[in-house]
């Protein structure tokens, strides 16, 4: 199909698709003449994926590009699936485990102490530790009352979620990174909506109605 | 303090603060002369809150404005705290429960059937039902493999989170909406970071390593 048809099928505009092509988010079509290219089912899938990641997942296009790169990497089967996926998401290059002594641990003291007490085996040089530290600090500034105990309770729930995430990764390494990356990004809005609905349910059923 | 000092204390710029003033996100200072106003601790707190909601919570300024409105509403104690909070977040006006027969249920058939099977007592006319429906559909389009069973497993975790959320709301209605709204927005990035770290932990400890 031509680019105008690709736009129609995917509900985009030709302008948007040309922008994706320039940014390398959409693979080029097969040249038919010097000014015309032919697009197929793989292009439709790619456009839908870019839009899902940016519109549903809320990622900027730089992050979308990194994720597409991680998904398309040929030697992906040899890498730790979770680590590859997470680094694509966090925007950090995956650091080498040896020979880089200046990789300082991330996050503030309190966050690192909490992780240690939790006995979570995570890489303290990962950008996610910073994200947790910053998000926790913002809760403090707003007076949310998020102490270690409440964080532990949330972490129990996060472990349940992560167990489902990890169990749902396909056994073949070929599709595993794709699954993990997309699952992490696209399930996030599902979880956010479930949380809001569950709050409603809890408030309506009155089991823990805070107003009573 | 002057507006330049307020900018310095909060790590903003005068341009940003003037923009907040024009948008009504920051309450005006106390006029000293015709061209000069004095700002206090309440302004510092407000600027920090706006920035936390927009930068950490990832909300656009229209949503920040609605949230500030909900937090500041004087008769908030008489309303259902959760509903007020959620409607501020979803950008929908809180519908009246009587006399509006044309409020159609939201979301697709599958989502409503799942909610019914789950026995969640939620308002099917709420925009959150649409959000769940769309996010679930995006997972399908990307081939994530999110079926009813896996959604149920995530919902179990969401119920745990919601129970903590609801239990942490202060008993006085005065601060309750503030707590719920800010908690919902600002805890979201905490939960996202916890999920990533828990994934790492699960993958490293090998209990459910998908590559093995």
From TrEMBL, chains A, B:
Protein name: Transcriptional regulator
Pfam annotation, one family: MerR_1
Regions annotated as coiled coil: none
Superkingdom, taxonomy of origin: Bacteria
Region (Disordered): 88-108
Domain HTH merR-type: 1-70
Metal-binding found in the keyword field: no
Gene Ontology molecular function, alphabetical: DNA binding; DNA-binding transcription factor activity
Keywords: DNA-binding
Amino acid composition bias (Basic and acidic residues), ranges on this chain: 90-108
């Amino acid at each position: 199909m031509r680019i105008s048809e690709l736009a129609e099928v995917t509900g985009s505009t030709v302008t948007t698709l040309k922008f994706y092509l320039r940014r390398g988010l959409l693979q080029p079509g097969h040249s038919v003449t010097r000014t015309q290219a032919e697009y197929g089912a793989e292009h439709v899938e790619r456009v839908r994926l870019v839009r899902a990641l940016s519109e549903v997942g809320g990622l900027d296009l730089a992050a979308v590009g990194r994720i597409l790169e991680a998904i398309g990497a040929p030697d992906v089967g040899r890498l730790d699936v979770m680590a590859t996926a997470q680094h694509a998401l966090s925007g950090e290059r995956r650091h080498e485990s040896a020979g880089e002594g200046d990789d300082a641990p991330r996050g503030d003291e309190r966050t690192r102490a909490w992780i240690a007490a939790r006995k979570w085996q995570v890489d303290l040089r990962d950008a996610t530790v910073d994200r947790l530290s910053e998000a926790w600090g913002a809760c403090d500034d707003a007076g949310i009352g998020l102490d270690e105990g409440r964080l532990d309770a949330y972490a129990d729930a996060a472990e349940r979620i992560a167990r489902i995430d990890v169990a749902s990764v396909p056994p073949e390494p070929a599709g595993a990174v794709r699954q993990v990356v997309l699952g992490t990004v696209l399930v996030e809005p599902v979880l956010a909506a479930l949380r809001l609905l569950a709050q409603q349910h809890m408030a309506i059923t009155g089991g823990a109605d805070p107003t009573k």
